[in-house]
Amino acid sequence: MNRAHTTHFSMFPDPAIKRILRGWNPEGGAAKHDVTLGDVRQAPTVLAGLGFLLIVALAARRITGAVLIGVLMVTAAGMVLGISQAPFALFSLPPDPSPICLMTEGVYRGKGFQVLGRIVYEWENGGWNEWHIVFSDGTSGWLSDAQLQYAISFWTDPGYVLPPSQEVTRGGGFTFGTVSYEVATITVASYKGVEGELPFPFYGKKDMYFADLRTATRAFGTIDYSDGAPMLYLGEWVEYEELQLKNIRQFEGWV
């Protein structure tokens, strides 16, 4: 990330981001990073590189649909090699009645935000959207959108070690700060699709556990067990009108 503009960087990035590569050197001079992400000889990396070369070659020959052809061929090869799955790799995002979309803008507690990304989750009784929102001060948060219910939440340091998922049950209680929460539901979900910018690398995940925390007020929370150590997100339910959304999707019949 670079600091050419206040909306281009944050001094307090989401802790879920595993690697922070700053575009500047705090001590002066050029920024230098030496990060090894994996062996480039591994099948997924090689396949991705070959796919890119294939797309370039098809585009050079002015073949219509070069990108789509390349993606489909790479996906098919990945399926044969067992390193990708057809349902997640090939299918587009499911139809969605939500008025929110990428680049939607809104306001929460007097601060403006913009929607930059989305994760679509699916579970046995349906699905929901988690919209990645970034505020004007660079703060990153999430706007949950499920069956016309909306909530804003942020990563929060719980102040103590959260229990493993197998020790969390409905009706159990947690206290964070001065607020007491009760575990209302345990949801097992999987990725249905993603789009836009996310604060962490994504990949197809299944059987991810989420513990939803409720209170007698608008305050709510989620303990996310989808990636290693549990992550706590706290926030509150909000009304659609409160968000003052603009740049939203329009549907036939809307006035």
Q: Topology of this structure?
A:
Elements: H1 43-60, H2 66-81, H3 86-90, E1 105-108, E2 111-123, E3 126-135, E4 140-146, E5 149-155, E6 173-176, E7 179-196, E8 208-214, E9 219-224, E10 231-238
Antiparallel strand pairs: 1-2, 2-3, 2-7, 3-4, 4-5, 5-10, 6-7, 7-8, 8-9, 9-10
Verbal overview:
By secondary structure, the chain is an alpha+beta fold. The protein folds into 2 domains: 43-90, no CATH class; 105-243, no CATH class. Helices cover 15% and strands 33% of the residues. It has 3 helices and 10 strands, in the order αααββββββββββ. The protein has helices at 43-60, 66-81, 86-90, and strands at residues 105-108, 111-123, 126-135, 140-146, 149-155, 173-176, 179-196, 208-214, 219-224, 231-238. An 8-stranded antiparallel barrel has the order 2-3-4-5-10-9-8-7. The longest helix is centred in the first third of the chain and has 18 residues, at 43-60. It starts with 42 loop residues before the first helix and ends in a 17-residue tail after the last strand. Mean pLDDT is 78; it is low at 1-8 and 83-91.
End-to-end CA span: 41 Å
Number of beta-strand segments: 10
Structural class: alpha+beta
Question: What Rg is obtained from the alpha carbons, in whole angstroms?
Answer: 21 Å
The main sheet orders its strands as: 2-3-4-5-10-9-8-7
Average pLDDT: 78
Number of domains: 2
Query: How much of the residues is beta strand, in percent?
Result: 25-35%
What is the helix/strand order?
A: HHHEEEEEEEEEE
Question: Uncertain runs with pLDDT below 50, 5 residues or more?
Answer: 1-8, 83-91
* Count of runs of 4 or more consecutive helical residues: 3
